[in-house]
Every structure is written in structure tokens, then in C-alpha cells.
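Ticket 4471: requesting a sanity check on a complex prediction with uridine-diphosphate-N-acetylglucosamine. Repro inputs:
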Amino acid sequence: MEKLVVEGGRPLIGSIPVSGAKNAALPILIATLVAPGEHRLGNIPDLADTSSTLSLLGRIGCPSLVNGVVRIDTSRVAFSEAPYDVVRKMRASVLVLGPLLARTGEAKVSLPGGCAIGTRPIDQHLKGLEALGCRFELSGGYIHGTVHDLRGADIHLDMPTVTGTENIVMAAVLARGTTRITNAAREPEVSDLCDFLVTLGAKIEGIGTSTLIIEGVPRLTPASRPYRIVPDRIEAGTYLCAAAATGGDVTLTGVDPKLMEATLAKLVEAGCDVRTTEDTIRLTRSRQLLPIKVRTEPFPGFPTDMQAQLMTLACFSKGTSTFEETIFENRYMHAAELLRMGADIQHAGRVATVRGNPPLKGAAVMASDLRASAALVIAGLAAEGITEVLRIYHLDRGYENLVGKLRAVGARIARVSDTVQDPAKLKAALDDLGPSVAPAEA
Ligand code: UD1
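Returned C-alpha cells:
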């Protein structure tokens, strides 16, 4: 396995291109199942989760080719199943449920189970699909769904679940009659999925609002032009936090600032100077960071996927910041690791209090989930000395070329085998401007 070694204390300066959004790419790749034929998708990020999704589609019988644009051939569906070995690596696999039921009348998906940030049930996915006429049975850890007559229905979600909304929409587009989803998730990635489905011939009204009205159609067909995925607002926000924590000056390109207002507002509250154009964001930070108040909420509120990164930033401020996590019950795993670097964080239940206590000191820390890992990288970039971030496979799930992008703006960061302990070898990896992987220690 590999780890990241980071030498902190350098302001990040320069420009970073933002990749396509992971959370839009995964449902859109899976949504190709609803329209038999060849699909072309652009701006799909090169991530471990993308590969997992393409391999899942391959097992279902839909081969793909990646060459800049991703091509997927969904002409034939051979198996309607997402097995445990795929689902346990990537919860988003549960998104095949809606499209497979709509396409073949059957779907078998391993139940995802809990994860590092909470129990994460899928009851709302099932409730919505049942309203459309699907029946489910649980056996051997698998949910087995069948449907004979997929028909539109009124569905009110108990909470605006992102993948839940997506699963229901992907089935409803092929149902007989009208489906009305109220309290639907409004995240830009849900809208991107809906926009993609519209290019296949789906009829969806209310895109971007909490009421989606879907008029089912008998069939959908692949679009003639490649569909381009929206920019990743969480990747973008992560690099802005890194720039802010290091007192840098970074311009993001290929980004959509309109999708990131809640995050940008917090960065301004923290004392950063943020300037935007239609597709760029420049962040500079030339003064002491200020404390912030963060409460996670569904879009357009502050995203839970940015909470960990902002908490790291708060550690470098002067004053007391407060965080309230309202989406997931166990999303402060990064706090314990930040404490190892000298942070002063206390949390009880959903509330955390951060007393800014710069500087943090480099240490070996363990990544627990994707965004917690990103938070630890930011901490390492701004801390004194060397930080080692272990279990970086989480980062590979969601950040395309993280090391390359950060190096390009002056970060001292490298990927090394986690057997490398010798400080001289770690330093050599940081000094090496070439390939970022140091050989394993003999
Ligand atoms: C998606 C994102 C994830 C993000 C999250 C919240 C993808 C692939 N992942 O995850 O990065 O952190 O949205 O913005 O897009 N819930 C239920 N029952 C359900 C469904 C959800 O109780 O059937 C609860 C969850 O436990 C959680 C809340 O609803 O407390 C929101 O979760 P949800 O929006 O479903 O998250 P995901 O779609 O899994």
C-alpha cells in the first residue's frame, strides 16, 4: 500500500484545473443502462470509483472504452446484479437498482451496509421504487427487486436523499404515467443526472427544485453528442481550503462558482479574498484566518462533503469555530487525527468546537473516509514539518491526480510505499520532481 508524505508550510500558488464531479459521473455512467445503445460521456474523472462503476457495468454485460471520452455500450444487459464485492467498495453501486428494474424488470443488489460516516440506510430508495410498483425481498444480504408494471406515482421523501432521488428518477423515466417526487434532493449532481436523462428523451420538469415531475416514456435512446459532466464542486472546495490554510493564491479553472456559494461564503467568512468569473475562482489569503460557524445542510446549504476540510481550516484560525453536522451521525473521524497534529477540537454528538491553535505539527495520521483524507492532506500542507497520511486508497476514490495537481502549485507532497520509514528517503521523494512514487524499502 501507499501513503502520502507532505511537508507543510509553503503557500500554494498557481492554477489548478478542476475535474468532472465524481458524484455526477457515477449516476450518469449507471443511467446509460436505461437507454440501449452506445453512449459517449465527457469530463468523467479518472478515479478508482469510475473504474469500479465501469467494471460493474461490464459485469452487467455493458462494455466500455476509455479514451478521453468514455464510451459505454448498453445494447445488451446480461445480468441484473451488483455483487457484494463491488458494492462494499463503492456504495454508489446501489444506483443500479432503479435503472435495472426499469430496463429488465429485475435487479439484485447487495445491501451496502454501514460505513465510516454512519449507518446510511436505503429505505427511501426502496419506498420510492415500491410506490412505482417494484417489490423487494431481502435474502443473503441481497435486495432482490422485481416489477411487472412500472407505473408513475406521487412520492414524498422523508429527507432529500441524493442517491435515493437519483434511483427513483432513473426508474420513473421509463414508468407508465406521471411521477411526482416531493422533497427531492436539489444537489447539482442530481440536476446533472436529470439533464443527461433529458438528452436521452426523458421528460422531467422541475430540475434543480425540490419537486421533480417525470412523465414516463416507453423508450429512451442514446444522445448523438457526448454529454459533459459538471465540474466537481467538492474537489474545487478542497483545493480552495488548501490554498486558504497555506496562505496561498490559487486560481481554479473549469469550475462553476454558482454551484459553490455556501462554501465560498464560508471561505470569505474565514477572511479569504474570493473572486469569481463564470468558470474560474481565485482565492487569496493574506491575513490571519478568522473563526467560522458551519452547519451542514442539503443543497443549497453547506455541503457535508466539505465539513472536514473546513474544520481543518478552522484549526489554523485565531478564535473558536463551531460545526454542526446534520446529515451524517458519525462524520468527525478526522477530528481525532487532527488532535494528533496539535488541534484543539471537542465534539459531542453532532456539534464540534474548534479552538484555533496554529501551528499544527506534522504527524502520521490515518485516513478514515474520502473527505476526512482530504482534510488531513490540507492539514499536512499547512502544518510545520512532515505529515504522513496513511490509507490513501480513500483519496484515489475521489480525487483525480491529487499529488500532481498540488505539486503544480508548489506543494511538497509525494506518494510513497508505506514501507518507507527512513526520513532521508521520504525527503528524497519530496525533492524528486519526477514520478511521485518512491520504491519500497528493502
Ligand atoms: C450522497 C453523496 C455523498 C454525500 C451525500 C450527502 C453520492 C454518490 N454520494 O450520498 O458524497 O455526502 O449525498 O450530500 O452522490 N438516508 C436515509 N434513508 C435513505 C437514504 C438516506 O435515512 O434511504 C439518510 C442518510 O443516512 C443521511 C441522509 O439521509 O443521513 C442523506 O443521505 P443521502 O443524501 O442519501 O446520501 P447519499 O446519497 O448516500
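Notes from triage: Residues 23, 26, 92, 118, 120-125, 159, 161-164, 185, 189, 304-305, 327-328 surround uridine-diphosphate-N-acetylglucosamine (CB under 6 Å). Leaving this open until the requester confirms.
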